Amino acid sequence: MSPFPSFIETFVIEPEFDCVSCIVRPIPDSLLKFSSISELSRVVAWCFCFLCNSRILDWKCSGNLTSQEVFNSILTIVKLVQQQEFSLKVEFLRQQKTLPGGHRLLSLNSFLDLHSIIRVGGRFSHGQSLTFVQKHPMFLPSRHIVTGLLIRSFHKRNFHAGPLVVLYWLRQKYWFVNGRAIVRQEIHNCTLCTRLGAQPCQYLMDNLFSDRITPPCPFPKVEMDFAAPFLTKPNITRSKGRLKSCIYVIVPRLFI
User: Fold this and answer.
1) What range(s) does the Integrase zinc-binding domain occupy (predicted)?
2) What is the Cα–Cα distance from 74 to 83, expressed in whole angstroms?
3) Degrees (nearest 5) of the Cα angle 36, 161, 45?
4) How far is residue 34 from each of residues 38, 70, 150, 187, measured CA to CA in Å?
5) Which SS3 state, helix, strand or coil, does residue 153 take?
6) d(CA 24, CA 224)
C-alpha cells in the first residue's frame, strides 16, 4: 500500500480584479503634425472662430486673426499639454492640495491661473516693471513636441541666436526644467546653423621645396650697394686737407 492518499483535496483560487480608472486627455495627432508653433496656433485659432460662429449667433468671427485670438490659442495648446503630462498635478493644484514631497513643481511654488494653466510662482511678485506673464511663466515639460516647436520658433525669430539668447527670451513666457540643455540640443539640430557653422575643407598641402629643406652654405649670394665718394675731413678741427670716402653695404640675399 502506498503511504500517500489517493485523493487530495484541491482549492481553486479565483483571481481578484481591481478596477482603476484613469482620465487621459491626449492631444489630437492632427495638431502635432505641424513644423512651427505659428502654424499650429493659427490653426487652433481658426478652429475656435469656427466654433464661435456655429454656436454664437449674435457674434461672428470674420476677417484676419487678431493677436489676442492667436494668444488665446497658444494658451489652449499649453493647457492641453499640461493636462496630458501633468494631469495628476493639475488636480492637486485645483483642489489646493500639497504636492508630494520631492516633486519638481513643489520647489517652483506653482499655482493655477484663471485659465487653469500651471504657472511658476518665483520671487518676482513685487516687480512693478514686469508683466504677469514675465513674473509667472507657464510651465512646460522638457521633452515634448510643443516645447521643441517653441524653441525653434524663438531661435528663428532672433535670427538663429545662441542658446543663452534663446533661453532668455523663452523665460519671458515659458519655464521648463533643464532649459539650457534642451535649448542647446534643439539649436544643434538646426539645419541652417549646421551649414553656416561648418568648417572649411582642409586641402592636402604639397611637398616643400628642396631649398627649404637642404641648408645652404653661408652667404652664397651677396648684394653690394656702392655709394658715391664723400669729401670728409681727417679730424674734427679745422684742416685744409680733405679725404675721399666711399660707403658700401654688403647684404646677403635671403629667400623667404
Assistant:
1) 149-195
2) 14
3) 25
4) 9, 16, 12, 18
5) helix
6) 95
The pLDDT tens digits of the residues spanning 166-205 come to 999 999 999 988 899 999 999 999 999 988 888 888 888 8
Q: Which segments of the chain does DSSP mark as H helices, in order?
A: 37-55, 67-85, 87-94, 132-135, 145-157, 163-170, 179-188, 191-196, 210-213
Question: Side chain identity at 143, as an amino acid letter?
Answer: R
- The DSSP code for 32 is G
Q: CB neighbours (10 Å) of residue 187?
A: 19
Q: Which amino acid is at 157?
A: R
Please report where in the chains the cell 481658426 appears, as a residue.
46
62: CB partners within 8 A, 6+ apart: none
Q: Could you read off the pLDDT of 83-118 as tens digits, one per residue?
A: 888 888 888 888 877 777 666 677 788 889 988 899
Question: By CB neighbour count within 10 A (0-12 exposed, 13-18 middle, 19+ buried), where does 256 fall?
Answer: exposed
| pLDDT tens digit sequence for 212-228 | 888 877 767 766 666 76
Calpha distance 117→88 (Å, rounded): 13
- Among left, alpha and beta (phi > 0; psi -120 to 50; other), residue 122 is left
Ordered structural domains, the chain, with CATH: 31-197 (1.10.340.70), 215-252 (no CATH)
Contact 186, 179 (CB under 8 A): no
pTM here? 0.66
